[in-house]
Amino acid sequence: MFGFRSDGKKIKNIDPFMKIVPHIMFHRNDALVMKTEEVDCEKFDKYILQKRKKENIKVDYMDIIITAFIRVISLRPKLNRFVVNGRIFKRKNIQLSFVIKKRLEDRFEETTIKLNFDGSESIYDVKELINEELKKNKGEQNKNAVDRLAKALTNGPNFMIKGMVRFFMWLDKHGMLPKSIINVSPFHSSVFLVNSRSIKMSPVYHHIYNFGTVGQFVSMGKEQYKPVVINPNKKEFEIKKMMDLGMVVDERICDGLYNSLSLKELHNILANPSVLDEKNNNVIKDVD
C-alpha cells in the first residue's frame, strides 16, 4: 500500500517523461509495443546436436529461449520493471511463466508453470528446473498451486467469480494482494511465454493482461523456410530454416533506446547459444 509491495520496490528517481507516461497510458493494453524477432534455427540445431553428441544432454528450443530471456533481463534489469497504479517498480527477482498441456489432446487440461531465477543460471540450471516442474505437473491428477487457486476462485456462481477477481485487482492496485497469491500467480511475472511451436502454429502477438505485472509476452512460432539475405552488397541470399518470436512489451517500463539495445543483446545471444553454457557472474542490479 502507498507504493509498497511484496514483489517489488518503487523506483523514486526516474526521468520525468517516463514518470508521467503511466498517467497517460493507464493500462497495459494502452502501452503495447509489438516486435518480431527472427531466429536462425540452423544455429539452434547445431548447438542442440553438439550437446547431444559431446555431452549426452538433450536441450530443446524452449530451453534456449527461456535461458536467453533470463540472461538478457539479468544484463538489462530495467526490462524487469513493472507499472501498478501509475507507479514504476523494480521486481525483486526474475520470474517466467508458461503454459503447458497435460497431453497434446483437446480433452486434456492446460496448466501454467511459474519459475523463479536470480539471473546467474546457465542453460543446465534452467533445464533442470524446467524438467523438475514438468514432472510434477504431468498427468491429469497432478494439480499445482495455480490450478488450486483457479479452482478455489471458480467454485462459486458467476457473479461471485466476477466480484472476487475485481476485488483481487483492487487489492493488487493498492499493494495489498497477499504475497501467497502473488507468488503463484502467472500474471505476476517478468515474462509470459507461449510455445505456439509445440502445436505447429505461427507466433501470435498476445496482449499483456491488465491484471498482474507481466511486462513482456513472448510467443514462439513454428519453423519455416525463408529467403534470408546474407550479402546485401552482392544481393545474395539463402533459403534458411527460421523461427519467429512474436514479442509484446509494456513500453512504460523503459525507453525506446533501452528496449532497442536489449533486443540487440537478445539477438546476439540467440545467434550464439553456447554463451548460455556458463553461469552469468555479472548480474546487473537495477538501481534507483
Tally of structural domains? 1
Helix content: 25-40%
Query: What is the CATH C-level name?
Result: Alpha Beta
Taking all Cα atoms into account, the compactness measure Rg is 20 Å
- CATH architectural grouping: 2-Layer Sandwich
Q: Count up the helices.
A: 8
Shape: globular
**Which structural class best describes the helix and strand composition?**
alpha+beta
Query: Going by CATH, what is the homologous superfamily?
Result: Chloramphenicol acetyltransferase-like domain
Strand content range? 25-35%
Q: Determine the mean pLDDT.
A: 88
Order of helices and strands: EHEHHEEEEHHHHEEEH
- Which residues form runs of ≥5 with pLDDT under 50? none
Protein topology:
Blueprint: E1 8-10, H1 16-24, E2 32-40, H2 41-55, H3 61-75, E3 81-84, E4 87-91, E5 94-101, E6 110-117, H4 123-137, H5 145-153, H6 158-173, H7 179-184, E7 191-195, E8 216-231, E9 236-250, H8 256-271
Parallel strand pairs: 5-7, 7-8
Antiparallel strand pairs: 1-4, 2-9, 3-4, 5-6, 8-9
What does this structure look like?
- By secondary structure, the chain is of the alpha+beta class.
- It has one domain (8-141, 186-277): 2-Layer Sandwich (Chloramphenicol Acetyltransferase).
- The protein has eight helices and nine strands.
- Strands 2-9-8-7-5-6 form a six-stranded mixed β-sheet.
- A hairpin with a 4-residue loop joins strand 8 (216-231) and strand 9 (236-250).
- Helix 3 (61-75) crosses helix 8.
- 31% of the residues are buried.
- The mean pLDDT is 88.
